[in-house]
Amino acid sequence: MARAEREPHRGAAERAEGVGERLVDALLERAHETPPQLIAPLLAEQVRLLGGRDVSILLQDHEQLMLLPLPGPGLITEGPHPIDGSPAGTAFLSAASTEIPRGAGRRIFLPLLGGAGPVGVLALTLDTVSGDDRRVLGRLAALVADLIATKGGYTDQFSLARRSSPMSTAAEIQWSLLPPLTMSTPEVEVAGILEPAYEVAGDSFDYALNEDVLHVAVIDAMGHGLDAAVMATVAIGAYRHSRRAGVGLAEIYAFMDSAIADQFGVEHFVTAHMMQLNVRSGLLQWVNAGHPAPLLIRHHDVVQQLKGPTTLPVGFGGEQPQISEQSLRRGDRVLFFTDGLIEEHLSGGEQFGEQQLIDAVTRIGPTGGGVRTMVRTLSQTLKRERGGITSDDATLFLVEWRGGT
């Protein structure tokens, strides 16, 4: 193509890009002082200036099964959309935009990518879609995801939109404790899930990536209901406090043990896994305080149960625990889980058992996708194989080491 022929095309693209930049800039300038309930109409206004319509914000529900519409002025409340098997779900799982025909135009589904992974999907319709439109919409979706993440800390609007069932008081406490369900960096990725999402009480997890070390705790407080949720709250608080004090795993265990014993007495306890992973070297260290052994997954197969010395559950006054170690290879995954996942009984039957869990991991592995997709798929598969029964809390937490950079 001659230079004279290229110049008009380049000029049109630059003008379109400039319009898009101004729209995103305008939204960004107004976003910091916009109350949560006005995010939707502000977004709809910007989309209209791009020639778009029928704007919808879809958020992942707590069970990680559906994308539920956020209500608000300027938004349409289509859905819910199943995460598996819908265009919106495809965009969410793949973290890439998806387009389908809609009348004379195109319906576009853009993942809302926050710092801790997708939180939902932005859907809208355009008559025609250019590459410049896609770039601008991608930036717009990223900004919307950040607004949901930052403003979600002081409004109930987004949390309520994610609920497909009533939530118990104990579950309300647990969800308020949780970090983001997923986290992804070049060195490491994690994802967790709690069951039953709207009734969970004693199970919880926490993690933090501090410099070169990923810290993780998975806990299961004894009992059910509000008592278990309160005990889990103390356990997670004690874990965070000791972790932030910069002490080692043995000292973390001792601090959590004292906190539970002092607050609830020696007849109460919390089982736990406390883990540290050096994300540069791949050295995994952990303390097992009464949990089933985690599974080491390599090339989609369970190659080892990470068995080692165990200590008494937190609160029973155990001696200084022994720390187990395992060197990981690039791409290795480690699956932590609580006993509610394997001790379930079908009516009149035997326990579900660790071997059935291992078999399920092996079946799902080759098609399981990324860490967060595998956790979702594994949770749903195991729930079906347990006959849909979840009489006790159950937690899955998956870590993948990608190698140091």
Automatic annotation (TrEMBL):
<dbReference type="InterPro" id="IPR036457">
    <property type="entry name" value="PPM-type-like_dom_sf"/>
</dbReference>
<dbReference type="GO" id="GO:0016791">
    <property type="term" value="F:phosphatase activity"/>
</dbReference>
<dbReference type="InterPro" id="IPR001932">
    <property type="entry name" value="PPM-type_phosphatase-like_dom"/>
</dbReference>
<protein>
    <submittedName>
        <fullName>Phosphatase</fullName>
    </submittedName>
</protein>
<feature type="domain" description="PPM-type phosphatase">
    <location>
        <begin position="185"/>
        <end position="401"/>
    </location>
</feature>
<keyword id="KW-0378">Hydrolase</keyword>
<dbReference type="InterPro" id="IPR052016">
    <property type="entry name" value="Bact_Sigma-Reg"/>
</dbReference>
<dbReference type="Pfam" id="PF07228">
    <property type="entry name" value="SpoIIE"/>
</dbReference>
